[in-house]
């Protein structure tokens, strides 16, 4: 997105038992070893994601007409409580109700959960285990794509009646898209009911966030 620059971050270096640098993102030429599943050897490699999220929050609050609420209590926006201790949470709510709000939840893993709109939660990293072999730059790019899809009005949610997977979402990126479907049982009933009501007013998806008005002294 124009104007946004990811902060310069030194990539953490981690070594294996033989002293060799672990090439996260390129460890397994084929299937990962069975013993690497559900093992998180260096979760701290994802610490840079917090700096990226801080930069996103700062950019969005300067660029768009939004209300910002900063406090761990807004982590309750997530459909399910975080699996890790919440360090910080920030809700960004556009002044136009047709725009999807976004809540960033910083956790002690260290990672992030992002709640968008009414029903969509995404987690960064998605897994983090040694087998999945995620590295922070790729995860940061996925986080940025997600947030900017919401901000530019390329995010849709729906609660579709009489289907097995009624809770649906779709994100469109400049070079691709992502979508998903979920069972209703995974969501609080009152949240689903409110979503049905609100989403009725945005049948074509959430709209783009309004840009902030220039201050009188900006010369614009």
Outline of the structure:
With 220 residues, this protein is an alpha+beta fold.
* Element order: H for helix, E for strand: HEEEEEHEEEH
Give the C-alpha Rg: 19 Å
Shape, principal axes of CA atoms: globular
Q: How do the strands line up in the largest sheet?
A: 1-2-3-4-5
What percent strand? 15-25%
Could you describe the largest sheet, including whether it forms a barrel? 5 strands, antiparallel
Number of helices: 3
**Distance between termini?**
21 Å
Mean pLDDT across every amino acid position: 94
What is the topological layout?
Layout: H1 48-63, E1 66-70, E2 86-94, E3 102-107, E4 111-116, E5 120-124, H2 136-151, E6 155-159, E7 167-173, E8 176-182, H3 189-199
Antiparallel strand pairs: 1-2, 2-3, 3-4, 4-5, 6-7, 7-8
Helix pairs in contact: 1-2
Molecular structure report:
With 220 residues, the chain is an alpha+beta fold. It has one domain. The chain contains three helices and eight strands; from the N terminus they run αβββββαβββα. It has helices spanning 48-63, 136-151, 189-199, and strands spanning 66-70, 86-94, 102-107, 111-116, 120-124, 155-159, 167-173, 176-182. Strand 4 and strand 5 form a beta hairpin. The longest helix is centred in the N-terminal third of the chain and has 16 residues, at 48-63. The chain is globular, with a radius of gyration of 19 Å. The mean pLDDT is 94.
Task: Summarize this structure as a short list of keywords or feature phrases.
alpha+beta; three-stranded antiparallel β-sheet; 220 residues
């Amino acid at each position: 997105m124009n104007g946004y620059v990811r902060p310069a971050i030194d990539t953490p270096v981690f070594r294996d038992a033989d002293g060799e640098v672990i090439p996260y993102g390129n460890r397994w030429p084929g299937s990962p070893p069975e013993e690497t599943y559900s093992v998180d050897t260096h979760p701290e490699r994802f610490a840079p994601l917090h700096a990226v999220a801080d930069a996103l929050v700062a950019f969005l609050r300067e660029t768009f007409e939004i209300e910002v609420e900063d406090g761990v209590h807004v982590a309750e926006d997530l459909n399910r409580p975080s699996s890790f201790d919440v360090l910080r949470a920030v809700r960004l709510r556009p002044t136009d109700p047709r725009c999807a709000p976004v809540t960033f939840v910083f956790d002690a893993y260290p990672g992030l959960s992002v709640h968008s709109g009414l029903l969509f939660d995404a987690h960064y990293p998605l897994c983090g285990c040694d087998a999945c072999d995620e590295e922070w730059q790729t995860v940061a790019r996925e986080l940025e794509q997600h947030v900017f899809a919401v901000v530019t009005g390329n995010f849709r949610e729906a609660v579709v009646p009489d289907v097995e997977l009624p809770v649906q979402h779709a994100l469109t990126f400049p070079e691709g898209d992502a979508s998903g479907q979920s069972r209703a049982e995974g969501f609080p009933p009152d949240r689903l009911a409110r979503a049905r009501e609100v989403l009725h007013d945005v049948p074509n998806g959430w709209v783009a966030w309004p840009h902030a008005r220039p201050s009188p002294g900006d010369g614009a």
